[in-house]
Specification:
The protein is mainly α and 194 residues long. The chain is built from ten helices and no strands.
């Protein structure tokens, strides 16, 4: 098994651990136990312990977001279809990695590990720039209303799946992500249609 695949598996195990027991349970020892290895074996992949595990989780998140945005930007079609592809990707990530919002919004990232705060801010700014560019093209084509700035529409777009992510992360049975996603998308379309 390659080191990259193993790192992804460990990142996924870390997210499962957070979903089951909360962010406080995210320790190198607990992650090692969850993946069935000894702590020293885990440290071969993550010599920095918890900080390296968190970095691996963020690598996973960045890879998924980058691929979704790449597809949306490069695939042909109107801006709203491109936005829907981005939206659907985020919903699938929420369903697969239920604990992701708990971790990404936690003090473990924003306070305890300040280098991750910078990384998350940069990732968010890049995502905003790319999605806002799609929105602007939709505005130019008359597909999206022009009386609201593209960056403000981006925030509305972000809110359509973040609310689902936060509720679903707390308890998997609290909300059906797909049903709510369809409702949120309809409301988003109504709010941005010219």
């Amino acid at each position: 098994m390659t080191a990259t695949i193993r790192r992804e598996q460990i990142a996924e195990a870390a997210l499962a651990l957070v979903a089951e027991q909360g962010v406080a349970a995210l320790t190198a020892r607990n992650v090692a136990k969850a993946v069935g290895v000894t702590a020293p074996a885990l440290y071969r992949h993550f010599p920095g312990g918890k900080a390296d595990i968190l970095a691996s989780v963020l690598d996973l998140l960045d890879a998924v977001k980058a691929e979704g945005l790449r597809r949306a930007i490069n695939d042909p079609g109107p801006a709203l279809a491109k936005l829907r592809r981005c939206f659907d990707l985020h919903i699938s990530v929420i369903e697969r990695y239920r604990a992701l919002p708990n971790l990404v919004l936690s003090d473990a990232i924003w306070i305890d590990e300040p280098q991750f705060k910078t990384r998350l801010l940069e990732s968010h700014q890049q995502q905003q720039a790319q999605v806002s560019a799609i929105i602007r093209k939709g505005q130019e084509a008359g597909e999206i209303r022009q009386d609201i700035e593209a960056d403000q529409i981006f925030v509305q777009f972000l809110g359509q799946f973040l609310t689902i992510a936060i509720l679903y992360s707390r308890r998997g049975d609290m909300i059906d992500p797909k049903t709510q996603a369809d409702a949120n998308w309809k409301m988003f379309i109504r709010s941005v249609a010219p």
